[in-house]
Amino acid sequence: MRVLHLTWFTPPTKPRPAPPFFGQERALKALESAFHQGGHGYLVGPSGLGKRKRFLAYLEGKAFPKEELVYLPLGEEAFPLLLPEGEGRALVEGVEALLAEFTPSLFREKGFLYAKSLVEARYEKEAEALLQALAEEAKEKGFTLEAEEGGFTLSGQGPLPPELSARLEETILAYVDLRQKAQAQVAALRRGFAERFLLPKAESLKAQFPEAGPYLDYLLENLLRAAALEEEPALEALFSKLLVAGGTRVVYEPNPTPERLFGHLEYEAKEGVLSTHLGLLRPGALALATGGVLVLEAHRVLELGSYPLLKRALATGEVEPLAPRPEVRGPRLKPAPLKAQVFLVGPPEVMAFLEEDEEFLELFPFRVEFAPEIPYTEENVAYLGGFLEAEGVALTPEGLAALADEARRMAGHQGRLDARLFRLLDLAKEAEAYRKPLDREAVQRALRAREERFGLEEELYLQDLKEGVVALEVQGERVGEVNGLVVVEGPWPTGRPVRITAQAGPGREGILSIDREVGLGGQVFHKAVLTLAGYLRGTYAQVGALSATVSLVFEQSYGGIEGDSAGLAELLAVLSALSGLPLRQDLAVTGAIDQTGRVLAVGRVAEKVEGFFRICQALGPTGTQGVVLPKANLPHLTLREEVVGAVEKGTFHLYAVEAVDEAIELLFGRKAYWVHEKVRETLAHFQSLENGEEKG
């Protein structure tokens, strides 16, 4: 079947504002299920699809509850408390206000000072009476009571009488007891005065925040004790910490180390002692996303060692900030409830590795799979334009059509668009450098510039071809030689012809692939050779066992070969070698085959056709040159305009075949049955030679 009409180009299309998940309805449905059920999930698809950016754009319009997370100290521990929006800040501010009330001026009020003076005066009077009585008794015995820095002593002539010494000790003990009672009475007075002032405020906070009752009791008791002892309270150990408040609750953490994911306590050194307090507590992404969504790159979670900790947190439903070094003094933190939905984003190879872990599938039940291609429709093309405009690209309808054409080429199918939007965005930005708003010519110039940047190897190849370093013919006929087509992979995949040759002789080895024998052929390539042998056995079964050895090789090929797309070309070379009939060199061949003689579709067919077209133009077009390809590949012919024009003018030809016999008639220029008969004659002759019935 000769292909005559190949026009496939996108008509000019006006951009239309694009929803984040246009063309990705499967992924959108999975996401909606995840949010409906509140489960964790993972976004999977090839790089360049914009999975993360599209997901974050989708989340922009969603409202999430904004509970506030507060950490409250309680002795040697600190416990978390989740409060409705605004209440966490109110609690912290209430505590700060309560602590601000506890100042030295609190004990300078007249009422307190008067009561304190009465207590001190009363005990002072009793103490003076004790001392006065001792002084008089000592004077009668010739001794004097004197006050020293360390207490009291009796001085006089001669030794101190035992009874007076005992009286001195008794008086000193009574005096100390009075002073201690005075201090205790003043302490009780200070505590009572502080309690009358602070307790109503603390009770008001407890009524407003009953969940914080134990902390508020602890706080009040510490303040009252400090008041009684006339000490400054250790405020750092009493302050609460508002860890999470406000924010969008949609968190993307690009660097998910354990510290940045779970939060941590920093510490400080004072006089050689390492210590910490809640003021040094830093929130992690899991806490910051409380009530919302946390988005993480899967490969970064694995690389940075956070995956085991993340699994434990999701399994327990708790987020435990990382503790500092063991020698650091400070509160031990209790885990906080994990109330964020976690979504991992990554390419298929990373997600396939994670899916091998059964725990992963239990913790992340929602697979959000992005298709690498989306249907080519007018709506999707318009949405593509809307996406590009949202990214700051100015384009005309013709420029959008050219970019859509490139998306179809990247997909390798006329009816599909490559979904790697950010690769198209890169191309669009490059095209803008030539014209803004960009049009079709600007896109084509950007594509030519890219081809030139990556085209050195192809340029050198064409030079070798013209100089005869690479042996290749694109006209005439040859026995046992055919032009196959391969693709040189790389940043800019390029199609090239490759000369495949076959030599046949008597023997029992069948099809012998030289490339396979030397280790250049891969498993799929070897499968194609065995399939070819299966076709020969089935087609020529009436001759009996194949008494032939046919060597097959890709000439001047020095790298690895993989794939089955040369199966048809190899078969034609083998049939030519067996029949002695020449093959056309102006036709290149691509296509896989099965054992029944059906020609099967292959990949990268557009690049292969363009590669042979380019070679023919370089070596001299004849007007008869062309490519034989599987009919099943017709939808994949997203060819450049120059190739389409040459085909439609009849200066370059494409032939779509469904069966081996169609290709035989094109390449041999004879009816297929006649070629098969010549092969049978040769095989019968080889069999006779092998059986010793003929002498060569």
TL;DR?
The protein is of the alpha/beta class.
Overview of the structural elements:
- By secondary structure, the protein is an alpha/beta fold.
- Helices cover 47% and strands 19% of the residues.
- It has 25 helices and 31 strands.
- The strands form ten sheets. The protein has an eight-stranded mixed beta sheet. Strands 8-13-17-2-18 form a five-stranded parallel beta sheet. A four-stranded mixed beta sheet has the order 7-3-4-15, with helices on one face.
- α21 (567-579) crosses α25.
- It is elongated.
What is the number of helices?
Answer: 25
Sheet with the most strands?
A: 8 strands, mixed
Judged by helices, strands and strand pairing, the structural class is alpha/beta
β-strand amount: 15-25%
Cα radius of gyration in angstroms: 45 Å
User: Overall pLDDT, averaged?
Assistant: 90
The spatial strand order of the largest sheet comes to 1-31-30-27-22-23-25-24
Number of strands: 31
Outline the low-pLDDT stretches: none
Q: What's the shape?
A: elongated
Alpha-carbon distance between the termini?
42 Å
Helix content: 40-55%
Please specify the SSE layout and strand pairing.
Layout lengths: L1 E2 L21 H13 L3 E4 L6 H9 L8 E7 L2 E7 L3 H15 L8 H31 L2 E6 L2 E6 L5 H47 L4 H16 L6 H4 L2 E4 L5 E4 L4 H5 L1 E2 L2 E3 L2 E3 L5 E2 L2 H4 L4 E5 H6 L3 H10 L1 E2 L12 E2 L2 E2 L3 E6 L1 H8 L2 H6 L2 E4 L3 E3 L2 H13 L6 H15 L4 E3 L2 H12 L7 H14 L2 H12 L9 E3 L1 E8 L5 E13 L3 E4 H4 L5 H17 L8 E7 L12 H13 L2 E3 L2 E3 L2 E2 L5 E2 L4 H15 L6 E5 L10 H9 L3 E5 L2 H9 L3 H20 L5
Parallel strand pairs: 2-17, 2-18, 4-15, 8-13, 13-17, 22-27, 24-25, 27-30, 30-31
Antiparallel strand pairs: 1-31, 3-4, 3-7, 5-6, 9-12, 10-11, 14-16, 19-20, 21-26, 22-23, 23-25, 28-29
Helix pairs in contact: 3-5, 4-5, 5-6, 14-15, 15-17, 16-17, 20-21, 21-25
